[in-house]
Amino acid sequence: MTAAPAGAGAADFALRPSLVDAAVEVVSVERSGEADGTLTAVTTIGIEKTEQLFDGHYADFPIFPGVCVMECVQRSVMAVAERSGMAEPELLAVESTRFLGAVYPGDLLTVHLDVRNDEGTLRCRAKAFTERGDAASVRLRMTGEVAA
């Protein structure tokens, strides 16, 4: 597993190998019918106790790294885009991230997404949570367009 180097930009984050082995399952996708082409979607990612990243984060108290929660959000947008027949989006910017609670081995991470067109890019707002409550609030800007 290779992490992005310190000071890496969004493009570096998008190009590095995946840190998470878990698959993204798209639970639902709905179009709002609004002019901005908003998609609302739900995905889930099972965080297995056997994820290799838990070996070093942290040995006596394993916790899912925040960068991996952000990656799960990005991969969720990509899975929703594929299911919706959109071109594969690329990450342009992480506009904001707030980590609100821990994600542990064995958790099911659920991601609620709102993806909309914004001046030739996609704006993605996401809430990630586990059965214990909120884990993160993330806003991404990506390439692409939601087809009307």
Folded structure, characterized:
The structure is a single chain. The protein is α+β, with helices and mostly antiparallel strands and 148 residues long. Helices cover 16% and strands 39% of the residues. The chain has two helices and six strands; from the N terminus they run αββαββββ. It has helices spanning 10-15, 66-83; strands at 24-31, 39-46, 91-99, 108-118, 121-130, 133-143. The chain has a six-stranded antiparallel sheet. A hairpin with a 7-residue loop joins strand 1 and strand 2. The longest helix is centred in the middle third of the chain and has 18 residues, at 66-83. It is elongated. Residues 1-9 and 11-15 have low confidence and may be disordered.
SSE order in H/E notation?
A: HEEHEEEE
How much helicity do the residues have? 10-25%
What is the C-alpha radius of gyration, as a whole number of Å?
15 Å
- Tertiary shape: elongated
What is the terminal-to-terminal distance?
38 Å
Q: In which order are the strands of the major sheet placed?
A: 1-2-4-5-6-3
Instruction: Assign the structural class, choosing from mainly alpha, mainly beta, alpha/beta, alpha+beta, or little secondary structure.
Output: alpha+beta
% residues in beta strands: 35-45%
Number of DSSP helical runs: 2
Mean pLDDT: 86
Stretches with pLDDT under 50, minimum 5 residues:
1-9, 11-15
Number of strands: 6
